């Protein structure tokens, strides 16, 4: 509840800033592709995302405004880093602008609930005026003399984003330097400045246990330019995983926007948005404002939609404790090797004892073998004491609340867990991966934190649970632990 209150407060504070005209284009799909307004989001999802958009506005006024944008962003070779490429072409009246930007973002993860991202983009801007289309009374007008139709420049954009669990806030500053674009050297009025913009955003994700694939995210965005009125957006966005999204946006004193999109085969994205003009502009304009989106996501296998695997083990900062922990793990590994050798010796001894004897028949020999195997499992398999020390393998889940996929309460017992995930895609992918080794692999949901726990073995027997743990660890060399759930 505190995060929701903070979200409402942030949107309210941003809306108080005073909105004015904008040089940078409006993007209707920035909720789907946030890198177009904030370079700090580059690489945050863990996947490689490519988007192509085309926006058309003010078409009722002569040539109107057209904005075509191609963007690509994803993880960078440097750990915790992301990159972005943004190419944009926009035409407004007689003015054409082509820009290309490269972005770099660095993500600092404090823990599973908090992370901070910084982003910087640098770009080249090609500015052109179609002087031949200007219709003037006096061709010798001094303001037209010496005017050039082409002037290049460069600029930087800065961005920062902070996430606290489901709450995200961001700030970006496009056209950071504010360079002048001079079309005439001697004419002091033959230029315009790239005004520095300030853009603040806040969003909050709402998840529902009954509909785990649905995410509803209210969002606010404020655009501020010194010397011009404030413009802000208030958006209600709903996204259903693997199907599509729908959003409704109010743009202050400008328009109401409807956005509809689909995820085709999960990774191909098609979207359309329409703006219904309102406010002071409505009586002077009858054109169509809309934007098209086409995108594709190249999955990396480690994405965060929020695809964040929870780090269950508490990091050990004290060198002494870390050394003791490593020593306990070493002893446990030695004990496992010893147990495997003992089991192998028992199997060899059992095979020798079961060699055919003249006085015995086959019918007597086979049942005797089964009984002996059961005795070996119950009596000879001993869990090392080290497994219970320092929560190495057995952990307490008494404060959890597990439910099955159908919503019913999970039974008490021992759950052998290989991972905890917040994204259904990762859950299903891991279950499919485990089917060959553990055909009964499934998942349970913890109602305390809404995360899914992938389980390879559920049993009331401590010994059987530990044998499953050893089998998984030996086959995969990956983390695995046993949750003791509601067992006295």
Automatic annotation (TrEMBL):
Domain SPOR: 408-485
InterPro entries in the record: PorP/SprF_Bacteroidetes, SPOR-like_dom, SPOR-like_sf
PROSITE patterns linked: SPOR
Signal peptide: none
A family per Pfam: PorP_SprF
Entry GO MF terms: peptidoglycan binding
Region Disordered: start-end pairs: 343-375
Protein name: SPOR domain-containing protein
The species this protein was found in: Brumimicrobium salinarum
């Amino acid at each position: 509840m505190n995060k929701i209150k903070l979200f409402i407060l942030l949107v309210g504070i941003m809306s108080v800033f005073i909105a004015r005209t904008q040089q940078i284009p409006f993007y209707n799909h920035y909720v789907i592709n946030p890198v177009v307004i904030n370079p700090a989001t580059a690489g945050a999802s863990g996947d490689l995302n490519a988007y192509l958009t085309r926006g058309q506005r003010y078409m009722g006024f002569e040539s109107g405004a057209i904005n075509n944008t191609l963007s690509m962003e994803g993880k960078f070779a440097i750990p915790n880093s992301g990159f972005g490429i943004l190419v944009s072409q926009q035409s407004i009246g007689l003015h054409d602008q082509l820009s290309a930007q490269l972005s770099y973002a660095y993500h600092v993860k404090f823990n599973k609930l908090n992370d901070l991202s910084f982003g910087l983009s640098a770009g080249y801007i090609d500015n052109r005026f179609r002087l031949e289309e200007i219709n003037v009374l006096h061709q010798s007008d001094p303001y037209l003399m010496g005017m050039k139709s082409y002037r290049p420049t460069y600029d930087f954009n800065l961005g920062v984003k902070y996430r606290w669990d489901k709450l995200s806030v961001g700030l970006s500053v496009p056209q950071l330097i504010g360079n002048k674009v001079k079309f005439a050297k001697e004419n002091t009025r033959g230029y315009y400045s790239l005004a520095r913009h300030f853009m603040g955003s806040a969003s909050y994700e709402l998840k529902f246990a009954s509909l785990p694939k649905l995410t509803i995210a209210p969002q606010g965005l404020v655009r501020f330019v010194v010397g011009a009125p404030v413009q802000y957006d208030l958006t209600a966005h709903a996204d259903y995983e693997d199907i599509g999204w729908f959003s409704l946006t109010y743009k202050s004193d400008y328009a109401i926007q409807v956005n509809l999109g689909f995820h085709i085969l999960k990774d191909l994205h098609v979207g359309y948005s329409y703006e219904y003009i309102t406010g002071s502009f409505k009586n002077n304009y009858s054109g169509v404002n809309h934007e098209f989106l086409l995108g594709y996501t190249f999955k990396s296998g480690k994405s965060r939609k929020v695809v964040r695997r929870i780090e269950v083990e508490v990091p050990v900062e004290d060198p002494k404790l870390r050394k003791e922990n490593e020593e306990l793990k070493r002893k446990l590994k030695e004990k496992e090797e010893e147990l495997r050798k003992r089991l192998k010796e028992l199997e060899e001894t059992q095979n020798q004892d079961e060699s055919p004897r003249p006085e015995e028949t086959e019918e007597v020999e086979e049942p005797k073998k089964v009984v002996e195997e059961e005795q070996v499992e119950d009596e000879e398999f001993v869990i090392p004491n080290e497994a219970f020390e320092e929560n190495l393998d057995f952990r307490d889940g008494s404060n959890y609340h597990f439910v099955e996929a159908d919503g019913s309460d999970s039974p008490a017992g021992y759950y052998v867990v290989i991972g905890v995930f917040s994204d259904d895609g990762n859950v299903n992918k891991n279950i499919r991966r485990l089917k060959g080794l553990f055909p009964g692999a499934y998942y349970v949901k913890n109602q305390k934190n809404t995360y899914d726990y992938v389980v390879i073995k559920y049993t009331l027997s401590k010994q059987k649970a530990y044998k499953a743990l050893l089998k998984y660890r030996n086959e995969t060399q990956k983390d695995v632990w046993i949750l003791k759930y509601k067992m006295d």
